[in-house]
Write a structure and sequence with these properties.
142 residues, alpha/beta, five-stranded mixed sheet, two-stranded antiparallel sheet, 5 helices, 33% helix, binds zinc ion
Amino acid sequence: MHTILSECPHCHSINKLVPEKAKSQSPVCGKCGKNLNLHGLVSEVSGEGFRKILKNASGPVVVDFWASWCGPCQMYGPEYEKASLGNPEVIFLKVNTETEQALASQFGVRGIPCTIMFKGGKEVARQAGAMNADQVTSFVRT
Ligand SMILES: [Zn+2]
């Protein structure tokens, strides 16, 4: 069965989830039992969680680099979330550039929002600026 990976915001364990189940019930962490706080199928990850997921993912991974003070990021969030529900074969992640500055600079993220697509652990595409859900879908399917 196809699974996606998510980082627990409480204990930081990496959880394997079946997308169809994760959509219909709010999934809890297999280790600490707390809510994984998914937005759609989007998991907010730390730098460490991001590296683990990228290493262990069997399929494509997409990341939205964002910040809470960024207006376009606020508008983009729900569109990105919507796209995650329509593309369960892709692992959708979000990285807060305020708390994960080292990761953002490692990937050369200058403007936000910045969406980066990875396949086999390597960057294959990036898009600066907000998109709507359809544009995100085209982006992750390229
Ligand atoms: Zn946990």
